[in-house]
């Protein structure tokens, strides 16, 4: 029993170590670039183009740099940029960090994940626009709701944060500590995922969401694929989805609805924990994102006949296969 437990811990550490090193290859150069931009005073000017969008959702314009990093690379890179920016930002509320969290949870890693959608026989431009516009819309709606009812207006509790640094030496030390914290979090999340699987919590989530997905017109075969992506991540779910799409065992409608749902909501455990550590409210990050995803999934299903012409591309899936 003890040996099995220790083996699982070691396996989780190895998986986390591999993932962390892969992420840090992108993270470290990005953080250095952000520091150089901060020292040169260019950040306010670079954030100006997306300033109106950030203002629309109640966020400082400077946070657009963190969002761009999330979209182009990953959530972890965006998190590091956000941490680097914190010392020069105004005090952020829990509502603002929840709104930011929902926006980046929906619209992140677009270069990689939209390419995955293309392998499933779905239009990549459509998926890119769906993710991008959905992220902005979800953030706007959540901002309106929280602002209208004055919810989560207290100061955000950001567990991964950096203090203002006077010298490059202090800054380097802070970044090293933050990277170590993030390394520990990645390994801990891997262990948590194993724990949830061992106690069948992921399966419980599947039973809860399964009926709702079937109401959206998603076939029983596609439901199991979506649930894997919801709990374990887009790469796991899409791997199975690509296989079925290329073999022709999933209809174009199932492929489009499935990858759209997975794009809007995946890695519900790992990604949600990361944004909660950055000050987001857990129920807002998880509950609102899931609700928004199901509504958008219903709309994609309802309007599929109109969307089919430019949203689904079975020929592209076949070309990738060969």
From TrEMBL:
Protein name according to UniProt: Nucleoside transporter/FeoB GTPase Gate domain-containing protein
Ranges where the Nucleoside transporter/FeoB GTPase Gate domain occurs: 21-111, 180-271
Alphabetical UniProt keywords: Membrane, Transmembrane, Transmembrane helix
Pfam family name, one: Gate
Transmembrane feature ranges: 20-37, 57-83, 95-116, 128-146, 222-242, 283-304
Organism superkingdom: Bacteria
InterPro entries in the cross-refs: Gate_dom (IPR011642)
């Amino acid at each position: 029993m003890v040996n099995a437990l220790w083996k699982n811990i070691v396996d989780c550490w190895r998986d986390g170590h591999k993932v962390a090193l892969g992420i840090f290859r992108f993270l470290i150069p990005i953080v250095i670039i952000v520091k150089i931009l901060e020292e040169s005073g260019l950040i306010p000017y670079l954030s100006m183009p997306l300033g109106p969008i950030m203002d629309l959702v109640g966020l400082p314009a400077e946070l657009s740099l963190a969002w761009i990093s999330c979209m182009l690379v990953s959530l972890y890179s965006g998190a590091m940029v956000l941490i680097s920016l914190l010392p020069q930002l105004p005090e952020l509320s829990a509502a603002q960090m929840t709104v930011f969290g929902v926006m980046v949870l929906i619209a992140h890693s677009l270069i990689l994940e939209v390419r995955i959608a293309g392998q499933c026989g779905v239009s990549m431009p459509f998926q890119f626009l769906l993710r991008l516009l959905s992220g902005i819309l979800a953030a706007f709606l959540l901002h309106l709701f929280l602002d209208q009812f004055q919810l989560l207006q207290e100061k955000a509790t950001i567990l991964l944060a950096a203090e203002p640094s006077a010298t490059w030496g202090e800054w380097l030390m802070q970044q090293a500590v933050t990277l170590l914290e993030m390394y520990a979090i990645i390994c801990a999340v891997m262990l948590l995922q194993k724990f949830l699987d061992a106690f069948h919590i992921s399966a419980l989530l599947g039973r809860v969401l399964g009926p709702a997905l079937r109401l959206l017109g998603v076939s029983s075969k596609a439901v199991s694929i979506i649930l894997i992506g919801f709990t374990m991540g887009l790469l796991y779910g899409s791997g199975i989805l690509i296989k079925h799409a290329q073999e022709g065992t999933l209809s174009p409608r199932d492929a489009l609805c499935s990858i759209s749902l997975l794009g809007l909501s995946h890695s519900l455990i790992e990604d949600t924990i990361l944004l909660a550590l950055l000050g987001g409210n857990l129920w807002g990050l998880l509950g609102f994102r899931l609700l928004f995803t199901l509504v958008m999934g219903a709309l994609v299903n309802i309007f599929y006949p109109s969307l089919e012409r430019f949203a689904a591309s079975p020929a592209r899936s076949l070309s990738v296969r060969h």
